[in-house]
């Protein structure tokens, strides 16, 4: 491994003023923390220019174009509007009566880590050995042959975040994937997407540890106050670790001993790793926002966030997204106050609203989940245009994953991650006809050769069936 | 008139000034899906009196002079929907054991566990389910001590303290992977237990004269299984894998007097013609399209459509999320339509099919003499953007207030300048 170049990468990433003469002087002897030891090997699949016309286009930024056209060239959005000329060599698709949207991005999935079939040997989503396991990376659990990826693709999912479970206070790193079938996880990794860190509030950590009933390791936390002490203790350690590394990078000397767990937490404090925190209750979210201020980091998104509607103003002010279900509630106390209007109420308050799945079933129809929330908002006078509501499905989750400059809306120059729907995607009867990822046609409902089948499903009942 | 009727009559008069029991009601102008040979009447007058439907006629037909009129102009009107498989009303919060009466793994009994004994009409999920257009819930216990879950029931969703309950509507049995595990570890163990238990129940009470113990069931459980064993009670069996479904049909052929229905049936499409021939109805969850386990490898969203095409009676329910979100049945049915089921068949799957499976007389249809469980919708009932405007149970217009709507209304405006929101009491 070339240490010099890694040092350079690190300096660029950290934008450390001190990177320069000093580190150059230490040269080959400098020790650094590798930022990307499992690099993405994904590149766009072959594609031709595609010209889609006569469509109702939701562009993802909040606008709708009737009888619109969309041109995809070299895997990017090339042009969008009403008066676009079709290049002679482009494949032409008449989308009369159909709708076109950016691909859906689910920022909360456990596909691959809790795959189908849900057998014990494939259940790899929670490293419950301790309440703080920031050292684990969920990409090391993701089984790319999970048939769930193919079902999600048929539902118009073009990118997704896989997260560790919520047993731990710090569950480990998440990973952002392109939803392309692949032999390896590296072949799915979204190039250039930042890492994320999964954290969890509330009932799960104390149930798994303190009250694990002997099935689990036991010990702290037993309570919500134990949870908070656990977060703060870890951030104190991380702050100290960061100080040592910062000092070393500035002044040289003996390199601090690397610590996988603290590498991740330091990445958060450095602003390189985005925090995604499972948190249901409003009061807990408010406390977590204060913890983040105490230690100088930011919570990018609260997940599940069933009580975001109670503090939507505070969430808007802080600038955290809420990743939400349309209507899940009641399965545990912290989900007891779930309401159907949570998403539109968060949106109305000017906060960032996201529709997420946390489910291999829900991920297949996130458009319907958005439609339910949209209609329930409308019923109580929150009138949000469909094209604005679509931001819950692509641009806002893209923001939460740090990939919004690359995908999430149909803006020229962005990745051609596109879905052609059979009709209005806010209808239960509409289906994804075609799904493009980086301009390549990865799914076609009417063409079996464009419908992937995972290894697991080969030779099994229903192989290649319409699902 | 029962105390409940008087109480709710007062509530209706006070809060809604809508139909009262003694006065006829006419729902006028709606597009009425009847579930009967009348099909869908594009613009209809539905007259209701004393909790029953009197007539369904074309628009312009006479409306009784003293009738309260509900204007359903251009709106869908359907029978109250039936949640064909749920645990609504026997759980408040799943993760809190003290509020969960679905199962009892430590009980000495199994078949005799009567889920109705755990029914709580105040469960918040009941109103939440009702306001979505579901007026009847089929409620099942969950197998836990052995493959017999116990006795299921059917209730209305009024949430009234003295809610009408059709107790012991069926016995629920788990086969497949779950049943195998509960019976000792294998499918053969499950079948051995089931056959032995059936023999015990058929021999009840005779063989228990001298002893409380049978081969598989003690006296209490044998007594509880006896009606089903004699064909007098529905046996609902949970199973999904094609080979398990075939085994059930073998069993049904060998015991022709049994009344059997299947819940799950994810691979039902693979044995659909035989199910149709055997006359065994199924309750499916059309969201199930993943090989979630080795007994669901062939799961597909087209299951409902293929079963129906083969002539099987198909009901649709939110099987996997039936405690709090039985209401998802309509979305699931809509997805079944997107996967090939006709709209009429999907409506049947939420109304006439469950009524037929559970023997619910006068429910699931709007026709002369039927019970007046009726819903007026603001759109297509299967569409995810639709909601009910009016929900009527036995002729009484129901409250649309739920704990959830109260929470929503409290937090619609986050304005605490004057007082904390705890003083806002919607």
Please state the average pLDDT score of chain B. 95
Oligomer: heterodimer
The name of the CATH topology of the largest domain in chain B is TIM Barrel
Low-pLDDT runs of chain A:
1-28
Largest sheet of chain B: 8 strands, mixed
Molecular structure report:
The complex is a heterodimer of chains A (467) and B (426). By secondary structure, chain A is of the alpha/beta class. Chain A has 2 domains: 1-32, no CATH class; 104-408, TIM Barrel. Helices cover 26% and strands 20% of the residues of chain A. Chain A has helices at residues 3-14, 21-26, 147-154, 203-208, 224-251, 260-269, 282-295, 312-318, 342-348, 366-379, 386-389, 395-400; strands spanning 50-58, 64-73, 76-81, 91-94, 99-102, 104-109, 157-162, 170-178, 196-200, 274-279, 299-304, 321-324, 352-355, 418-421, 432-437, 440-444. In chain A, 54% of the residues are buried. Chain B has helices at 3-15, 124-130, 176-182, 187-202, 219-229, 242-254, 272-278, 303-309, 329-338, 343-350, 352-358, 403-411, and strands at 25-33, 40-49, 52-58, 68-71, 76-79, 81-86, 134-139, 148-156, 165-174, 234-239, 259-264, 282-284, 314-316, 374-377, 388-393, 396-397. In chain B, the strands form 2 sheets. In chain B, strands 1, 2, 3, 4, 5, 14, 15 and 16 form an 8-stranded mixed β-sheet that branches. Chain B has an 8-stranded mixed β-sheet with strand order 6-7-8-9-10-11-12-13, sandwiched between helices. In chain B, a hairpin with a 6-residue loop joins strand 1 and strand 2. The longest helix of chain B has 16 residues, at 187-202. Residues 1-21 of chain B have low confidence and may be disordered. Chains A and B meet through helix 3 and helix 10 of A and helix 2, helix 9 and helix 12 of B.
Question: How do the helices and strands line up, and which of them pair or pack?
Answer:
The complex is a heterodimer of chains A (467) and B (426).
Chain A (H helix, E strand, L loop, with lengths): L2 H12 L6 H6 L23 E9 L5 E10 L2 E6 L9 E4 L4 E4 L1 E6 L37 H8 L2 E6 L7 E9 L17 E5 L2 H6 L15 H28 L8 H10 L4 E6 L2 H14 L3 E6 L7 H7 L2 E4 L17 H7 L3 E4 L10 H14 L6 H4 L5 H6 L17 E4 L10 E6 L2 E5 L23
Chain B lengths: L2 H13 L9 E9 L6 E10 L2 E7 L9 E4 L4 E4 L1 E6 L37 H7 L3 E6 L8 E9 L8 E10 L1 H7 L4 H16 L16 H11 L4 E6 L2 H13 L4 E6 L7 H7 L3 E3 L18 H7 L4 E3 L12 H10 L4 H8 L1 H7 L15 E4 L10 E6 L2 E2 L5 H9 L15
Parallel strand pairs in B: 1-4, 1-5, 6-7, 9-10, 10-11, 11-12, 12-13
Antiparallel strand pairs in B: 1-2, 2-3, 5-14, 7-8, 8-9, 14-15, 15-16
Helix pairs in contact in B: 3-4, 4-5, 9-10
């Amino acid at each position: 491994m070339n240490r010099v170049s890694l040092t350079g990468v690190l300096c660029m990433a950290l934008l450390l003023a001190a990177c320069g003469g000093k580190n150059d002087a230490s040269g080959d002897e400098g020790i650094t923390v590798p930022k990307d030891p499992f690099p993405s090997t994904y590149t766009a699949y072959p594609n031709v220019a595609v010209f889609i016309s006569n469509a109702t286009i939701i562009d993802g930024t909040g606008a709708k174009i009737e009888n619109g056209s969309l041109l995809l060239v070299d895997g990017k959005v090339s042009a969008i509007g009403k008066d676009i000329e079709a290049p002679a060599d482009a494949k032409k698709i008449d989308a009369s009566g159909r709708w076109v949207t950016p691909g859906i991005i689910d920022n909360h999935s456990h596909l691959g880590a809790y795959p189908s079939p849900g057998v014990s040997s494939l259940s790899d989503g929670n490293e419950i050995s301790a309440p703080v396991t920031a050292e684990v990376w969920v990409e090391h659990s993701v089984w790319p042959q999970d048939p769930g990826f193919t079902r999600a693709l048929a539902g118009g999912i073009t990118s997704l975040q896989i997260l560790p479970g919520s047993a731990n206070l710090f569950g480990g790193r998440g990973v952002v994937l392109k939803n392309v079938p692949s032999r390896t996880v590296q072949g799915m990794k979204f190039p250039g997407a930042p890492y994320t860190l999964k954290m969890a509030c509330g009932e799960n950590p104390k149930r798994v540890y303190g009250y694990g009933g002997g099935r689990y390791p036991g010990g702290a936390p037993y309570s919500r106050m134990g949870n908070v002490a656990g977060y703060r203790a870890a951030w104190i350690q991380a702050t100290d670790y960061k100080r040592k590394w910062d000092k070393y990078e500035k002044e040289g000397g003996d390199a601090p001993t690397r610590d996988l767990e603290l590498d991740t937490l330091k990445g958060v404090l450095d602003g390189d790793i985005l925090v995604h925190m499972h948190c249901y209750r409003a009061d807990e979210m408010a406390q977590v926002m204060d913890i983040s201020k105490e230690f100088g980091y930011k919570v990018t998104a609260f997940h599940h966030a069933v009580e975001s509607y109670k503090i939507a103003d505070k969430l808007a002010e802080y600038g955290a997204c809420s990743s939400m279900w349309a209507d899940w509630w009641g399965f545990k106390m912290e989900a007891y106050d779930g309401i159907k209007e949570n998403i539109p109420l968060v949106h109305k308050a000017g906060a960032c609203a996201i529709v997420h799945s946390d489910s291999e079933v829900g991920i297949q129809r996130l458009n319907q989940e958005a439609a339910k929330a949209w209609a329930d908002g409308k019923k109580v006078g929150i009138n949000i245009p469909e094209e604005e509501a679509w931001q819950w499905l692509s641009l806002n989750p893209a923001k939460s994953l740090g990939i919004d400059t690359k995908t999430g809306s149909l803006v020229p120059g962005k990745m051609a991650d596109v879905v052609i729907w059979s009709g209005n995607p806010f209808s239960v009867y509409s289906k994804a006809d075609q799904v493009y990822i980086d301009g390549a046609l990865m799914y076609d409902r009417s063409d079996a050769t464009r419908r992937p089948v995972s290894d697991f499903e080969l030779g099994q009942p229903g192989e290649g069936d319409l699902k | 008139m029962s105390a409940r009727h008087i109480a709710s009559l007062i509530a209706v008069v006070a809060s809604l000034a809508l139909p009262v029991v003694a006065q006829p009601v006419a729902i006028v102008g709606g597009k009425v899906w009847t579930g009967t040979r009348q099909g869908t009447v594009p613009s209809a007058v539905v007259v209701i009196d004393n909790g029953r439907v009197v007539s369904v006629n074309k628009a312009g037909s006479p409306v009784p002079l003293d009738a309260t009129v509900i204007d359903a102009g251009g709106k869908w009107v359907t029978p109250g929907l039936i949640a064909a498989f749920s645990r609504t009303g026997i759980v408040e919060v799943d993760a809190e054991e003290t509020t969960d009466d679905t199962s009892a793994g430590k009980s000495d009994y199994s078949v005799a566990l009567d889920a109705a004994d755990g029914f709580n009409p105040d469960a918040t999920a009941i109103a939440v389910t009702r306001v979505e257009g579901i007026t009847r819930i089929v409620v099942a216990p969950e197998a836990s001590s052995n493959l017999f879950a116990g006795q299921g029931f059917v209730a209305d969703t009024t949430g009234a303290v003295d809610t009408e309950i059709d107790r012991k509507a069926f016995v629920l049995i788990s086969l497949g992977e779950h049943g195998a595990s509960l019976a000792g570890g294998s499918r053969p163990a499950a079948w051995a237990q089931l056959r032995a238990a059936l023999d015990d129940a058929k021999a009840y009470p005779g063989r228990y004269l001298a002893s409380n113990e049978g081969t598989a069931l003690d006296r209490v459980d044998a007594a509880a299984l006896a009606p089903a064993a004699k064909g007098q009670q529905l046996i609902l069996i949970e199973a999904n894998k094609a080979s398990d479904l075939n085994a059930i049909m073998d069993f049904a052929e060998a015991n022709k007097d049994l009344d059997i229905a299947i819940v799950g049936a994810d691979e039902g499409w693979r044995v659909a013609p035989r199910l149709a021939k055997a006359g065994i109805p199924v309750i499916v969850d059309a969201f199930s399209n993943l090989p979630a386990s080795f007994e669901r490898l062939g799961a597909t969203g087209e299951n409902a459509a293929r079963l129906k095409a083969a002539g099987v009676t198909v009901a649709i329910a939110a099987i996997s999320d039936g405690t709090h979100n039985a209401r998802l049945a309509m979305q699931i049915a809509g997805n079944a339509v997107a996967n090939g089921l006709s709209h009429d068949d999907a409506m049947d799957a939420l109304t006439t099919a469950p009524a037929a499976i559970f023997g619910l007389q006068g429910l699931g249809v709007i026709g002369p003499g039927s019970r007046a469980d009726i819903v007026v919708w603001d759109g297509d009932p299967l569409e995810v953007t639709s909601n009910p405007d009016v929900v009527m149970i036995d002729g009484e217009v129901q409250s649309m207030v739920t704990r959830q709507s109260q929470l929503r209304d409290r937090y619609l405006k986050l304005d605490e300048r004057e007082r904390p929101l705890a003083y806002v009491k919607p």
